[in-house]
Amino acid sequence: MAEATPVADAVFASAVVPAAGPPRAVEWPTDGLSYGGDYSPEQWPREVWEQDVRLMAEAGVNVVTLGVFSWGLVETADDVWDWTWLDEVVALLLDQGIRIDLATPTAAPPSWLHTAHPEVLPFDADLYQQPPGGRLAWCPSSPVFRRYALRFVEALARRYGRHPAVRLWHVSNELGGGNARCYCDVSAAAFRDWLAHRYGSVDAVNAAWGTAQWGHRFGAWEQILPPRGKHGAPNPGLYLDYERYSSDALLAHYLAEKAVLEQHSDAPVTTNMMVGPGAQVVDYASWAPHTDLVANDHYTLVDDPDREQDLAFAGDRMRGMSAGRRPWLLMEHSTGAPSWQQRNRAKDPGEIARNALAHVARGSDGALFFQWRASTAGAEQFHSAMVPHSGTRSRIWREVVELGGHLRALAEVQGSVVEPARAAMVVDDVAGWALQHGLTPHRALRYGRELRTWHRALWERQVLCDVVPPGTDLDGYDLVLVPTLQVLSDAEADRLRAVPARGGTLLVTYLTGVCEPTGRVRPGLGALADVLGAWTDEFYPLQAGERVRLDDGSTVEDWTERVELDGAEAVVRYATSSLAGGAAVTRRQVGDGAAWYVSAALPRDGVDRVVDRLVEEAGLPRTAEAEAGVEAVRRVGADASYLFLLNRTDADRKATAAGTDLLTGTDHGPVTTVPAGGVRVLREHPATP
């Protein structure tokens, strides 16, 4: 492929993002909970379209995502347009009463654009240019791509912006999924502009990044380049700022499209995130305030032994990013096997509904799938769908129709919110980037490991936990968990110190606060030693196969530390290694509150023992008393509360709960049996005075 060519610094699409305004009050796109999926009629002859809308009515579909990959089928050549087929589909859906989530198809640039302007294709860190043929094959800072993309969005919005069927706008698709980072010279110029706005001067950049080490001081803006080359050791400050810039470059593109749409339409505007465990491709918490409703695509991984807990974690994180904990939207998940894993897994009978309703339980006001009808060609031809290759005789279709009935039965749940949580976990993508990309003495650490381990312990105990970004007001939470938040600002450190000071319980794990937002190491290896009453003297990363026992019987791998006490007490100590006798878990009483520090990568049993104490200490209520394997989540509305009980086991399970099951119309209580692999949604009976 071609090498990157130099360009003038002025020739780029700016990545500087304005502050978000207050959240906009918008109308939910459907009456009741949203149900449907990505619809690609362009893949099928017209006679199939009529069949599709009949089947959508049978399944209870009330919204479809339309046009995600349609650019080259509408703009068939440069400024040559054919709206005929799209007009016909939009009219067909309107006649059937199906709402449209209309996508801007900028995730799929047409072949004619790549042929005319190959310079829009992104470059990887080794300056290899991505060839055409994939999704999101464009540099986020390319002014050429931006111009063509906005021209299409303008034409689309003018044509359909006031159409009665269009109730939601879907900007591009999974932004960053194929172009999260570009290292070309256009991106380098845009990065320098971004740095100038962030720091103001080259000297300030040198100070922030500590460029005196290795003598890498910059004397002029043009000397600063992206962290190119996959085999080097980039300056941590440079690396983190390039990650931030890359996220902002994609966000700036989203905002440019959004601004065009808002000129022609009052419908809400969003884009589909890909929130899961660990660090994400972009800083979604900084994106969320710029969306009218937050939306997520969620797919479980075959090798994840706790797939349903991963689903719960993603839901808790989406709720934590939604302004005022308002309902969010599950934009994509699967009816069965996806197509992009090494060995794709089909879902078990009943799992489609259980997964979909688990998202609804945690705040989604709908359940959409990729895709409506299974493709017969292309890269995703074996991806599952609402109408699978085996058609309407299939188990999947029967379960899709059943789920549509469930969601109609739950219509009154729409607009309610998940009850207030009294536990929170602070999660930050920037901290995750620092941890996962080797900016620690242990380069195999993964951010998602600690997040999922501590969240799982609360999830299994029916303790609701909001997963929130830095900057969140923590005053309403009795327990705040902060796992491996390596990058920590002074302002966030003050928010965390305030938790025990007001009588709450704060738990911080290893590596939290050891770096400033610039990536520089804080002297003293942490920002919270004063409130924790303990400080880290030295890191002791464990080698492959090395294990250390603790005096509570658990065994640690990966990470330990030498910790000195300064007002805290040791709750758990190291029992072996050169750290034997030293504190592994500490606790400091702070007035009526407490501050805990965990210096080791505790295994599950060790985390469980600590969490049992935390739950008791903070007085956290369980959502419901239920047998193992039942997940309980409550949503509350103006006139009723709704208890979701999801049984992830292959045997019937009981929960202490009473109410009317909206899925069956039957009354239950004071003990409710949840069938194996099934779900009950109880409109709870009012408490007796």
Summarize the model shown:
The chain is of the alpha/beta class and 689 residues long. The chain has 17 helices and 31 strands. The longest helix has 29 residues, at 236-264.
What does this structure look like?
This protein has 689 residues and is α/β, with parallel strands linked by helices. Helices cover 30% and strands 20% of the residues. It contains 17 helices and 31 strands. A nine-stranded parallel beta sheet has the order 7-6-5-2-1-11-10-9-8, covered by helices on one side. Helix 5 packs parallel to helix 8 (236-264), helix 6 (185-199) packs across helix 8 (236-264) and helix 11 (351-361) packs parallel to helix 12 (395-409). The longest helix is centred in the middle third of the chain and has 29 residues, at 236-264. It starts with 33 loop residues before the first strand and ends in a 5-residue tail after the last strand. Mean pLDDT is 95; it is low at 1-10.
Secondary structure: elements and pairs:
Layout: E1 34-39, H1 46-59, E2 63-66, H2 71-74, E3 75-77, E4 80-81, H3 84-95, E5 99-104, H4 111-116, H5 143-160, E6 166-171, H6 185-199, H7 202-209, H8 236-264, E7 269-270, E8 272-273, H9 284-287, E9 295-297, H10 307-321, E10 328-332, H11 351-361, E11 364-369, H12 395-409, E12 417-418, E13 423-426, H13 429-436, H14 447-460, E14 465-468, E15 479-482, H15 490-501, E16 505-509, H16 529-532, E17 534-541, E18 548-549, E19 555-556, E20 559-565, E21 569-573, E22 583-590, E23 593-598, H17 604-618, E24 625-626, E25 630-636, E26 641-647, E27 653-656, E28 659-661, E29 667-668, E30 671-674, E31 679-684
Parallel strand pairs: 1-2, 1-11, 2-5, 5-6, 6-7, 8-9, 9-10, 10-11, 13-14, 13-15, 15-16, 16-23
Antiparallel strand pairs: 3-4, 12-25, 17-20, 18-19, 21-22, 22-23, 24-27, 25-26, 26-31, 27-30, 28-29, 28-31
